[in-house]
Amino acid sequence: MSKQISADKRKLILEGNLIHAILMLAIPVMLNSFIQSMYNLTDTFWLGKIGTSSQAAITLVSPVQNILINFGAGITTAGSILISQYLGAKQDRQANSMANHICLCSLVFAVICAAICWISTPSIVKWLGADADIYSYSVSYLRIVVLDLPFLFMINLYTSVKQSQGDTVRPMLLNLLGVLINLVLDPLFLLVFRWGIAGAAFATLIAKVPSAAIAILALRRKNQLIRLDFKNFKFEKSKMASIFKIGLPTAIGGSTMQLGFLLMTKNVNAYGTTATTAYGIGNKINSIITMPANGIGSAISTIVGQNFGAGNIKRTDRSYHIALRIGAIFLFVFGMLLSRRFIAEPIVRFFTSDEAVVPLATDFLSIMAMCCWTNAFYNVTQGLFQGSGHTMITMAVDATRIWVFRFLTLWFCSSVLKMGVESVWYAVVVSNATSALILYILYWTGIWKKRTVKIDRETENSAETETHTCTS
Fold first, then answer.
1. pLDDT in tens, 199-215
2. What is the pLDDT of residue 46?
3. What's the 3-state SS for the chain?
4. What confidence score (pLDDT) does residue 227 get?
5. How many other C-beta atoms lie within 10 A of the C-beta of residue 409?
6. What range does the domain containing 183 cover?
7. How far apart are CA 142 and CA 399, in angstroms?
8. CA–CA separation, 297 vs 46, rounded Å?
9. What is the reported pTM?
10. Per the count of CB atoms within 10 A, which of 11, 167, 321, 419 is most buried?
């Protein structure tokens, strides 16, 4: 049954109505992104009940956690891209083999990173400039949450494998299970057991364990089109080379970007705990605003991957333009509404009752919402380049977005215009818009049409096809 469903979705992606295909993939991804963000949103909400210092601690160390997550996500993103292209070329057995290679890479990376980060946490937090209560809160939270990396990566592997086949509903349901567990455990650990910020971290860790176990069991079921099976596993250097060729730029770009976020947080921390808390709340709400762009970008990555693997460049281009229109129009309307202070302020007050934090966070949210439509250009075009395997381009744009445009704008606004903490708000908006424009210009150069990985577009009907591998 599962194989039939996968075949139907592949046919829709390769031959069916593109609007239907985009919405079929994007809506569950949007919901899934919202569900995943609920981990941090739930922590932020309940920690707001016990003090601003706890919220500031999470804001301070979250970028460290995100650096590790984004670097590991480069591996699973590569898997999703390569599996999609194999499926588009109807190389199903090669897609299966690729999933097994991705699984091994993810597990090894997750265990090593969790161990290193746990040991170095005190030094990292001290380097960030934390002291007193914020230092102790940050160390407690980060040391616990990094232990969930192996479980998180297994969930991400499941998401990548399913999304490459056009199935975005099951990953959404799997993450929903974890969030529901977290929703119960957060108030229990924080308010009943009074474990403080460590309770929020333990709730997040424990919530991911059942989802990871289900993910592995589901991927090993025999009726799956793509499944994990190491019984006759054969290590292939060509597949590992493809993973690193596609995944390493994504990993470096994502982690470099998060390192930039980390330094941004350090800059904000110089303005005090109130500013850091406002920055954290604004970013979390903004992550919800931009979910449609993220969802459509992920959908396009899958559609582009399969059609690119099938050699259908015209359909790839058409799907990009349809997705871009959908995302830009939706975010423009939604952003204009949310940028109104009488709407933005009540949303901010949901996360904090601190009267010093509310106006700062409201200003940040209003400014970002007004310009959030540029995220559609950024995410959808990024999905096009990733789906076609041009992750070196997305890496370069990700890095320059933070390290060049954001820090340059921050310096100009704070040092030349003397705008104070508002310099941070405008640095975020200007850097996002500039990077979106650069990606859009790069699209028109047509560079995305060039192949980065060789995929033979033949049906696996013979022993000769069985030997085809992904080569650089």
1. 888 998 999 999 999 99
2. 79
3. CHHHHHHHHHHHHHHCCHHHHHHHHHHHHHHHHHHHHHHHHHHHHHHCCCCHHHHHHHHHHHHHHHHHHHHHHHHHHHHHHHHHHHHHCCCHHHHHHHHHHHHHHHHHHHHHHHHHHHHHHHHHHHHCCCCHHHHHHHHHHHHHHHHHHHHHHHHHHHHHHHHHCCCCHHHHHHHHHHHHHHHHHHHHHHHHCCCCHHHHHHHHHHHHHHHHHHHHHHHCCCCCCCCCCCCCCCCCHHHHHHHHHHHHHHHHHHHHHHHHHHHHHHHHHCCCHHHHHHHHHHHHHHHHHCHHHHHHHHHHHHHHHHHHHCCCHHHHHHHHHHHHHHHHHHHHHHHHHHCCHHHHHHHHHCCCCCCCHHHHHHHHHHHHHHCCCHHHHHHHHHHHHHHCCCHHHHHHHHHHHHHHHHHHHHHHHHHHCCCCCHHHHHHHHHHHHHHHHHHHHHHHHCHHHCCCCECCCCCCCCHHHHCCCCEC
4. 83
5. 19
6. 2-452
7. 24
8. 31
9. 0.75
10. 167
Residue 467 CB partners (closer than 8 Å, separation 6+): none
Q: What is the tally of structural domains in the chain?
A: 1
Q: Which residues of the chain are modeled with pLDDT < 70?
A: 1-6, 40, 51, 453-472
pLDDT at 324: 94
CA neighbor of 76 nearest in space, from 6, 22, 154: 154
Does residue 467 lie in a domain region? no
Confirm whether 363 is domain-assigned.
yes
pLDDT at 385: 94
CB atoms under 10 Å from CB of 322, counted, come to 19
At 218-266, the pLDDT tens digits run 988 888 888 888 777 788 888 888 888 888 887 787 777 777 777 787 7
Is residue 458 in a domain?
no
Q: Is residue 466 part of a domain?
A: no
